[in-house]
Amino acid sequence: MFNLTFEFKLKPTATQIAVFEDWLEQCRKVYNYALRERKDWYNSRKCQINSCSIHSEYIIPAEVARPTYSSQCKALTAYRKTSPALQRVNAQVLQQTLRRLEKAFVSMWEQNHGFPRFKKQGALRSLSFPQLGTTFHQGNRFKLPLIGSIKFCQSRPIPQGAIVKQARVVRRSSGWYIMLTLQWDVSIPDIIPHGNPVGIDVGLTNLIATSNGLLIKRTRFFADAERKLKLLQQRVTRKKIGSNNWKKAQKKVALLHEYVANCRKDWHRKLSHQICDDAGMVFLEDLNLVGLKAGMLGKHCLDAGFGQFFNILEQTCFKRGVYFQKVDAKKTSQICPNCLNETGKKELSQRTHSCHNCGYTTDRDVAAAQVVLKRGLAAVGHTVKMLAEGKFIGIPAKQESPRL
């Protein structure tokens, strides 16, 4: 099976927007109620058997099982028969809300994510429709259960032969969007290493440095918008919380954040295609992104969007048939790519790599990218001897400076 997600902008009417808003609020209440039920069960098991909590008591019988997705779906079905507000919402949409909560707990257990938190008003922004009818797509309209026909802006054609497995309606500051998950019953062969290899090193001075000497400066989308963002946030603080003017000021702040995010993503996509134009293999260093954002330069790392760029580059390589692989990022800036000897740690102000053993001199980031390239080629079966013979673009066949 092969899955792709297509995104389109919706053009709902005022009545349909009111229905979406009501559904989001009901889903938020279901999410918070289910989370409260799970937290109460956990808190009732936290204290010791022979003692009680000083702050609060959670008296739940010992034979009561832990709330799960299945048990909460059964309870939701029973309660929905007595609640007119929940009867207005599609039953599968409510079940997907409980599934989202279950995924949050699984991520906490398996991926060390934080404990799920309650959703305040307006925090829940998407609705999932897991099953759609055969007449879902009709010209320039989508037909959703209990909603009816909705106009959309068809920015790209929907491929023939694809099955729409599910749809997700998302509310953003710029409007309403729908994300369609399309599925093809085909098998995609794995991409094998071929063509010209390229190693990539990422940083804050240069977002990327390739093994063939290409240096791309990091664009500061958020830093450039900080001045305007500060002004808009000051206007928000001067408005009465909850008033119409406060909501308008909040929307302007959200629109600016969305604009910055869209600019960053567009630039990442164009850069990824530029890298894949002349490459058959792309090797990237596997960084600890969680540790980077928690460091002293975390704000600049988040502005650069390393994680988003890595995902977009991997997707672009897959679409264009380019082999993609991540390699170990340890000591890439402390090893000479020509003789593979360690040169020691470098200060951030030292932007030139100079090896005292072989005399090889080049830009610091380019040298690190060449080390990444060597590790990637070694991982796919190529030898360092082939690199030394100059059979691959990006690694120099001779020294750039005389031996010291």
Q: How is this structure best described in words?
A:
The chain has 404 residues and is α+β, with helices and mostly antiparallel strands. Helices cover 41% and strands 19% of the residues. A seven-stranded antiparallel beta sheet has the order 2-6-7-1-5-4-3. Strands 10-9-8-11-12 form a five-stranded mixed beta sheet. A two-stranded antiparallel sheet has the order 13-14. The longest helix is centred in the middle third of the chain and has 34 residues, at 244-277. The chain starts with a strand and ends in a 16-residue tail after the last helix. The model is unreliable at 392-404 (pLDDT under 50).
Write the layout of secondary structure elements.
Elements: E1 2-11, H1 14-44, H2 69-80, H3 84-87, H4 91-110, E2 126-129, E3 137-138, E4 141-144, E5 148-153, E6 163-172, E7 175-184, E8 197-202, E9 206-210, E10 215-217, H5 221-237, H6 244-277, E11 281-286, H7 289-293, H8 298-304, H9 306-319, E12 323-328, E13 352-354, E14 361-363, H10 364-379, H11 384-388
Parallel strand pairs: 8-11, 11-12
Antiparallel strand pairs: 1-5, 1-7, 2-6, 3-4, 4-5, 6-7, 8-9, 9-10, 13-14
